[in-house]
Amino acid sequence: MNPAWRDIRVNSTRYGITIVGLMFIQLAAVGMIGFYRGIVRDMLVIVDGIGADFWVVQGDRIGPFAEVSVLPGPLDRRVESVPGVQLARRFIQFPRMIRINDSLMRVGVTGLDYPKDRGHWIPLVAGRAIMAGHHEVIADQLTGLAVGDRVHLGQDDFRVVGISKNQVDLTFDPAIFVTITDALAIGVTTPSEEVLLTRAGRRPGQNYQVSAILVSVSDAGGAMSVQSQISRWPDISIVATEHQKSWIVNEVLGPLRQQILYFVCLLLAVTGTILGLTMHSAVLQKVHFIALIKMLGASDLYIVRFILTQAFAIGIGSFAIALTISWFLFPRFPRSVLVYTSDMIWFFLSLLCVCVLASGSGIRKALQVRAREALG
């Protein structure tokens, strides 16, 4: 039997406690990486799902996810007249406190440009898309609502027709989807008579404002032409979806990504410190054994392999247990924690480097042992 494995089996309690301790540290590190990935997914879920090529926003603004953007609602007709534009949809999203099951909850009210957009792009776990111009809502499952429930929004009662999954706004509040006409009515406090006039298509409905116009081009080759034409308009800006996503990831989430990276490095440093102390202590207890095998002709490479085998066994064992627990534990968290294979590969390689560095003290001590110490 390999003496490294034999020593682990003989001292299983000590090594087991070390593995469990390192497992919790690595579970925390994996969780922090997954938490960041979950934040990125949640912040981009509507931007990705809505399927627009460009976002037309207020002049000199980046977009509705960066700063306040106000556009006249009828601007979509002007945008849709540009050659190469296949579809132009109005977009608005704002936070609201609503009462659900006798308790207040903050949600992100999102307007769908019905009938151009019925919400078919929204991933549903129950129910259907919006099929009526008023009083229908798609609610995320985080709200606790079910298909058929009634919820009071603004001055009206809405019927829940669909339940979405993982649809949140930029503040991670669950999103609810209504027609843009209903969203505008919810967003302002108006007398009931004015609401009725707005829905009838009279004057009060002509001055409404939205946050952005979503532009879909007819073909990829015409995208640059559409962007060039609209960018010449002095009162608005046009931002590509990829630019919008890049801003969210790099500007909004950039500091958070750096901070999580620092914490993960700190946890790896703690792992290395604990592993280094464990290996150094193990070598001190094996001085006589190391001197004996040196007397029998063992090379320095054999000694190094003996110590590294134990270090890798502890590091890999703790990582395997942490990864297994994460598959069962993280899906139960209230926020998304996503464990990606690519992230775990990089973390695993980093852990192997930590194991090698942590073994340095023990290896140096083992190589200083002389064969004659076996006689003393």
Spell the H/E element sequence. Answer: HHEEHEEEEEEEHHEEHEHHHHHH
| Average pLDDT rating | 85
Structural classification: alpha+beta
* Content of β-strand: 15-25%
Tally of separate helices: 12
Q: Per the principal axes of the C-alpha atoms, what is the gross shape?
A: elongated
Provide the number of structural domains: 2
Q: What gyration radius follows from the Cα positions, in whole Å? A: 30 Å
- Major β-sheet profile: 10 strands, mixed
Assign a percent range to the helix content: 40-55%
DSSP summary, beta strand count = 12
Distance between the termini: 27 Å
What are the SSEs and their pairings?
Elements (H helix, E strand, L loop, with lengths): L2 H8 L1 H39 L3 E5 L12 E2 L2 H6 L4 E16 L2 E10 L11 E4 L8 E5 L9 E4 L2 E9 L10 E5 H8 L4 H8 L9 E2 L1 E6 L5 H9 L4 E5 H12 L1 H32 L1 H9 L4 H30 L11 H18 L1 H9 L8
Parallel strand pairs: 4-9, 6-8
Antiparallel strand pairs: 1-11, 1-12, 2-10, 3-4, 3-11, 5-8, 6-9, 7-8
Helix pairs in contact: 1-10, 2-7, 2-8, 2-10, 8-11, 8-12, 10-11, 10-12
